[in-house]
Amino acid sequence: MNAPNASGWRPEMGEAGAILPATVSGDHGLNLEEKLIFELAAPGTYGVDFDDADVAPAPALGKFLRKAAPALPGLTEPEVVRHYTRLSRQNYAIDLGPFPLGSCTMKHNPRLNEKVARMAGFADVHPLQPTQTVQGALKVITQLADWLMALTGMPAVAMTPKAGAHGELCGLLCIRAALTARGEERPVVLVPESAHGTNPATAAFAGFRVENIPATEDGRVDVAALTARLGPDIAGVMITNPNTCGLFERDLKTISDAVHAAGGYVYCDGANFNAIVGKVRPGDLGVDAMHINLHKTFSTPHGGGGPGSGPVVLSAALAPFAPLPFATLDADGVAHLVEEGDAHDHGHPNSFGRMTAFHGQMGMFTRALTYILSHGADGLRQVSEDAVLNANYILRELEDVLDAPFAAYGPCMHEALFSDNGMAEGFSTLDIAKGLIDEGFHPMTVYFPLVVHGAMLVEPTETESKAGTDRLIASLRSLAERGRAGDVTLKSAPHYTPRRRVDETLAARKPKLVWKD
Amino acid sequence: MTRYFTKDHEWISVDGDVATVGITDFAQNALGDITFVEVPEAGKALGKGDTASVVDSVKAASDVYAPVSGEVTEGNAALEEAPELVNTSPESEGWLWRMSVADAGELADLMDEAAYAAYIAEL
Amino acid sequence: MRYLPLTPADRATMLARIGVDNIDALFCDVPAEALQAGPIAGLPAHASEMAVERHMGRLAGENLSAGAAPFFLGAGAYKHHIPASVDHLIQRGEFLTAYTPYQPEIAQGTLQVLFEFQTQVARLLGTDIANASLYDGSTACWEAIAMAHRVTKRKKSILTGGLHPHYVATAQTMARFTDDVLVAQAPVLSGDAEDGAIIAAIDGETSAVVVQYPDILGRIPDLAAIAAAAQAHGALLIAVVTEPVALGLLEAPGALGADIVVGEGQSLGVGLQFGGPYLGLFGCREKFLRQIPGRLCGETLDAEGRRSFVLTLSTREQHIRREKATSNICTNSGLCALAFSIHMSLLGGAGLERLARINHGKAQALAAAVATVPGVSVLNDAYFNEFTVILPKDAREVVDALAERDILGGVPLGRLYAETPALANGLLLTATECTSDEDIAALVAALKEVL
């Protein structure tokens, strides 16, 4: 029974629990369904006006002319705006709430970065313009490079890699080139078993054979096992620090010294640099190469899966082999772009070559530099401190209801790792993750790293307020308790999303990758 | 027809000089829904322990090793359209490949049905 | 600091809850000698939004932007008009600040976009299927070569003379570390697209022949003839498209027999951005499905039987296959794919065809105009929106002289082929719908002055 409100108005509504009516449209209020563009578009329609009359193609194209226009749907501008806006509402995003994906560093994306990247002097500049017409663009690259070198304590940086994995490749190619220059063939790269999958994939792509190094009880690389394996066939190691368990590899310097003594090189996966930026310089720990994900530590937007950017800082031993092209500033403050034709004149004859067309992810450089200048050295230090503080707060608040395998060994860094031990029979990490969706959060990283059963890796980042983190903690606590109690409603989560759990088996058994009439 | 088992959960049935190989019911259970099976082509030479086939589930890809040395005579073409046979009938219709047995002595290193049952009971 | 919500009081409360006295207690695993005592020395402190904007604005002001001058550059990056709605939509936070769609229930927006994008790309390139994008055209080209190697089990790929030299260099870098053998030919300054030489180079050892369409000099190779020759030798044809607008007018490479088609999608929706981020397009025959690098989005059903989309076939990828993956790539170029897809939805096939005709017409007007300059000759027999002219002297000097007059007068071949003096007098000129008659007149007048 509905009680009248203060003005005496009483909505006439059916009994609570009545079956929800179907709608003719298929939409349900603000829960909007959206067809595919191929189902919406009429042939021949488009939403662009052209200034120029159609110009008949030259007969010279006759042989190559299309028989018919491409079979692509077109929509007018109002229809396009509506289509994509409706689709966008089916996404979770940082702008809606916390995104505690471990090792992804989903921090707030400042809008000043976007504004700057869209300045015509950056957004509307061609990569092959004469360098005297792009001095400012080249200085963005050199200024960002200077910051990255200072923050890492490294003497060189390769700016062109297009993403973290591309950066890994760059670092390993430098190692490969350095070994070749020494006249050595070292076929093996050592990778800890807790490593991200890209590490072994990259090593294999660069022509190395991968051997795994075990972890110790406390979630770190087994230094004894690693040093015992060193020898003339080891090109180097790939270590993530802080590692994928969210822990600092406290013996990294010892490892580096041992690897160097054995003639190898140390690659550091910088995926988790956000935990130490402004506090620790990897160069002080003997690292030879480390990629930096600008889309993690330096806040460039993830965009639903790219584009990223992965510059690689390099030690003096690897710097001579860095890829082309690169930007430099001469004594008079004039910026140059060193390309294939002038590498020799700039004292860089040993470059392993080019990794991509043009000069890297410029649009990400402008955003990252804007972010770095906003924070400054003091702000960046605060970033890592707050990121680590938030993660440890979560660890401490939840360790009584979620198994935290490494909590006994000391604090974590920027992310807290839990396992699904202690859940009721048949309940696992997946159920907690899907339950978190119903709670209005994006799930944490699940089933990674592989060294922990049913891993849950929670990375709040520094851009969560305490109140926001407390809300996330309350939801996780509730879910942990439901999982321990075997609450069956968790098994069918999520319930409140545009789609329920999807059939991934069907998708893989009968792949449908394109729409067909 | 004698059936042997490996510690990697392959089974091999030997009938004269031709053997049929697949993965065990225990293995398919552990893998979950199989979405794709890459079977070896006829004529491929296999050494004992070589990767001969790959079985994919949604979240994992598992290598299947040759239990003995020999030459592939046939891959199970039915799995291309129906990989789920490995789930529904792992030790019969869901076989992966047939091969010759180069050295029958290699079979001696494998387990029989009872030994395999005891082995998985320990896991 | 404006991006950091924690207050000093919050920090104190949280440290107390954790049970430590100060923040450095949480960094106890860092060796003391490696822990910075204060902010890293020699670096400036934080700055206000206004101050940062001013600094960056000054740097932006040191560049001559393409829209502020008569502009004729192409060579793998093209200036096209981007409708305002494209940039508005990609800045919606739900797209901009979302992650890779690993949780399909709350990422259907991104996933449906990727499915639509894959379909648009496959139809544009004329391939059965397409992936959800790669970093850019040059890296997509290498991925295609590596995939062809996996498919054919052969090591030798032929990189034809018309392939963008940066694409060649990118592939050569990778091939130095794999067992791939790349046979690269330098382009010859001739008006035809060297089809005969390409076909003659294909043999029984060839894994793939890589042909750019239109090529780096703007010429249009006969893909159908090359595809037939490749097929006769059991080799694959990889077609590379750096200007997708061309496919509004030119027959799709897949329809002409290309087995794999890769390209640079920057032309549609993405913008020049001094070279990146761009958008790698990748399409191929369905039978190569399991060998494709990168992300794939597929259609499926949810628990209630409703059409849904999900990342699929991920057992090809690094996070599962580790060292046995088809590629080490783990991202795509999602936001650029979104921009491309929106722009393509605004154009449709009919609009794309019309845009292509306008581009072609502008290039014809440009070619006719520069041909009137004494000492300048147009090389190409056929072209889409860019072509090569031969100047009486090194084109690099000419372009520099034009830049002094605030004219961005094309890409000198000497910039792309520093080691090949025979190409030094070649200049690559591009016209698009953004090129005006006044721009063309200004270039012609300036060329007459500087030559």
From TrEMBL, chain A:
Catalytic activity annotation: N(6)-[(R)-lipoyl]-L-lysyl-[glycine-cleavage complex H protein] + glycine + H(+) = N(6)-[(R)-S(8)-aminomethyldihydrolipoyl]-L-lysyl-[glycine-cleavage complex H protein] + CO2
E.C. no: 1.4.4.2
InterPro entries in the record: Aminotrans_V_dom, GDC-P_C, GDC_P, PyrdxlP-dep_Trfase, PyrdxlP-dep_Trfase_major, PyrdxlP-dep_Trfase_small
Domain named Aminotransferase class V: residues: 201-303
Entry function: The glycine cleavage system catalyzes the degradation of glycine. The P protein binds the alpha-amino group of glycine through its pyridoxal phosphate cofactor; CO(2) is released and the remaining methylamine moiety is then transferred to the lipoamide cofactor of the H protein.
Class in the EC hierarchy, top level: oxidoreductase
Glycine dehydrogenase C-terminal domain location: 384-481
The UniProt record lists the keyword Oxidoreductase: yes
UniProt entry keywords in alphabetical sequence: Oxidoreductase, Pyridoxal phosphate
Name of the protein in its database record: glycine dehydrogenase (aminomethyl-transferring)
Highest taxon above the source species: Bacteria
UniProtKB/TrEMBL annotation, chain B:
Domain of life: Bacteria
Cofactor: binding details: Binds 1 lipoyl cofactor covalently.
Protein function: The glycine cleavage system catalyzes the degradation of glycine. The H protein shuttles the methylamine group of glycine from the P protein to the T protein.
Subunit structure: The glycine cleavage system is composed of four proteins: P, T, L and H.
Official protein name in the record: Glycine cleavage system H protein
UniProt cross-references to Gene3D superfamilies, sorted A to Z: 2.40.50.100
Pfam families: GCV_H (PF01597)
Cofactor: (R)-lipoate
HAMAP family, sorted: GcvH
Keyword Ion transport tagged: no
InterPro entries the record matches: Biotin_lipoyl (IPR000089), GCV_H (IPR002930), GCV_H/Fam206 (IPR033753), GCV_H_sub (IPR017453), Single_hybrid_motif (IPR011053)
Domain Lipoyl-binding: 18-100
Stored PROSITE patterns: BIOTINYL_LIPOYL
Keywords for this protein: Lipoyl
Modified residues (N6-lipoyllysine): K59
Membership in a protein family: Belongs to the GcvH family.
UniProtKB/TrEMBL annotation, chain C:
Protein name per UniProt: Probable glycine dehydrogenase (decarboxylating) subunit 1
Oxidoreductase keyword on record: yes
Reactions it catalyzes: N(6)-[(R)-lipoyl]-L-lysyl-[glycine-cleavage complex H protein] + glycine + H(+) = N(6)-[(R)-S(8)-aminomethyldihydrolipoyl]-L-lysyl-[glycine-cleavage complex H protein] + CO2
Listed InterPro entries: GcvPA (IPR023010), GDC-P_N (IPR049315), PyrdxlP-dep_Trfase (IPR015424), PyrdxlP-dep_Trfase_major (IPR015421), PyrdxlP-dep_Trfase_small (IPR015422)
Any coiled-coil regions, as ranges: none
GO molecular function: glycine dehydrogenase (decarboxylating) activity
Source organism, top-level taxon: Bacteria
Quaternary state and interactors: The glycine cleavage system is composed of four proteins: P, T, L and H. In this organism, the P 'protein' is a heterodimer of two subunits.
EC number per UniProt: 1.4.4.2
Family the entry assigns: Belongs to the GcvP family. N-terminal subunit subfamily.
NCBIfam families xref list: PRK00451.1 (NF001696)
Residue ranges annotated for the Glycine cleavage system P-protein N-terminal domain, each copy included: 1-446
Gene: gcvPA
Function text: The glycine cleavage system catalyzes the degradation of glycine. The P protein binds the alpha-amino group of glycine through its pyridoxal phosphate cofactor; CO(2) is released and the remaining methylamine moiety is then transferred to the lipoamide cofactor of the H protein.
Keywords for the protein's UniProt record, in alphabetical order: Oxidoreductase
Species per Swiss-Prot/TrEMBL record: Novosphingobium humi
